[in-house]
Design goal:
mainly alpha; hpI Integrase, Chain A; 3 domains; two-stranded antiparallel sheet; 8% strand
Length: 432
């Protein structure tokens, strides 16, 4: 927090009622509490008022104040999502002071749920992420690997104030020997247990770290032991220079951004979570990977998370199925790739093609892509395309695949790419 922001906070927290409100918010999220506090002060300054004056407004006057806020910031040219970020703290303050605005009196904000700065943000390709490693310092390499390969938020590696973070004890299958300076894993991919105190949603959950991630973590930990650090269960997975202390979220994010900048990319640290989910979306159905599992690994609430919360752990059989599915799908995450066979490439092409016409992972679980004939594959594609009158769909395929498609009514060649692959298009009916 900057000196100016710190000064703002101290001034507002001198008011006992504001301090009470801030304390209550912080029980759920210290970050949210601090952001709301600063924005309450900024709004009061902008509109020449104070928290206590706002607290004396009638419900109708409070509603008018919110609408006036939206109008003021809209005229100033702020994005709807930014305006929403200013309105939410004021609503929270009104609730604290029991100012109840009728649900029928909506405060409308155009574009409140749109993030224009992220619309064109591209998820890294494998070769792009691979190019980052040589620009990473040891700690940065471990941070990028964890976020890209497990899907965790930076807050998991280091909390807002740096009081807690993922520790070696949270990797139950990891072992280390300080004397021999060695690291080993009972199983790879290895389990990563996120305690509820590290979870944004307040729910404990688990994920996995693939072989490439384990290799990069091992190198980092061995380096720490070689520098004289004695690792223990409470040691942070990614640590500061002094005795394995935990980092703050801000430090983790600054580390990752610095590595990206040196590599020539303007990515946000959170792009690595998008990388994780986007790459796993490409997993062939024969991996057995379920969408609900990916949701669970990323710390979202839903299906498997509810079971985990109730029973406090995954059953051995459930864990084995998830690990096996992650292991197969991790080939899509890892930037160090083995050469793929033609059969593997064909299976991956068919999985991507079927998703592009509307199939989900759960739709395709159990489908044997190795035994699927060209005719059966085309029939699956046609089922989704039929009924979409006038709909056009393009695919990028190899020349051999293109010939099969073009010989079947409904597809025609659009262009040949520099790579030698062919763009084909379906018009939803007989080819022209």
């Amino acid at each position: 927090m900057s000196g100016k922001e710190s000064s703002r906070s101290r001034r507002l927290l001198a008011d006992e009622d504001v301090a009470r409100w801030h304390f209550n918010l912080a029980q759920e999220s210290e970050l949210t509490a601090d952001i709301y506090l600063r924005r309450l002060d900024m709004v009061c300054e902008e509109f020449s008022t104070s928290p206590q004056r706002l607290a004396k407004l009638s419900p109708l006057a409070a509603y008018d104040f919110l609408v006036d806020m939206v109008r003021h910031y809209t005229v100033d040219g702020l994005a709807g999502s930014t305006i929403k970020g200013y309105v939410k703290p004021i609503r929270a303050w009104f609730r604290h002071k029991e100012i109840r605005i009728s649900p029928e009196k909506r405060v409308s904000i155009r574009g409140a749920d749109k993030t224009p700065t992220l619309v064109n943000e591209q998820v890294p390709e494998l070769h792009e992420l691979h190019s980052v490693w040589k620009f990473c310092r040891p700690r940065e390499e471990a941070e990028v690997a964890f976020m890209a390969f497990t899907g965790v938020r930076p807050e998991v590696l280091g909390s807002y104030h740096g009081r807690d973070g993922l520790r070696l004890a949270d990797l139950p299958e990891l072992h280390y020997d300080n004397d021999l300076r060695k690291v080993a894993f009972d199983a790879v991919p290895t389990r990563v247990v996120v305690r509820e105190g590290l979870s944004k949603m307040g729910n404990a959950y688990e994920s996995f770290l693939c072989k490439e991630g384990c290799d990069r973590l091992e190198k980092y930990l061995v380096g720490r032991m070689s520098a004289g650090e004695k690792l223990g269960p409470a040691s942070a997975v990614v640590a500061g220079a002094l005795g394995g202390r935990v980092l703050s979220t801000k430090t983790v994010c600054e580390d990752v951004k610095a590595a990206f900048k040196r590599a020539g990319f303007k990515w946000r640290p959170y792009i690595l979570r998008r990388y994780f989910t986007t790459r796993l979306d490409l997993a062939p159905p024969e991996t057995g990977l379920k969408d609900s599992w990916v949701t669970f690994w990323m710390g979202h609430e839903g299906g498997i998370e509810a079971v985990y919360r109730t029973e406090k752990k995954l059953s051995d059989s459930q864990l084995a199925k998830m690990r096996a599915a992650y292991q197969q799908a991790s080939a899509l995450l890892q930037t160090v790739q083995a050469q793929k066979s033609p059969d593997t490439l064909q299976r991956e092409f068919r999985a991507v093609a079927l998703r592009s016409v509307g199939y989900t992972n759960d739709d395709l679980v159990g489908l044997d892509f190795g035994a699927l004939t060209t005719e059966q594959f085309q029939e699956l594609v046609s089922k989704k395309l039929n009924g979409a009158v006038g709909a056009r769909r393009q695919l990028v395929v190899t020349p051999n695949e293109a010939e099969r498609y073009i010989n079947d009514d409904g597809w025609f060649c659009v262009q040949t790419l520099p790579s030698g692959k062919v763009v084909i298009e379906s018009a939803g009916g007989p080819r022209p």
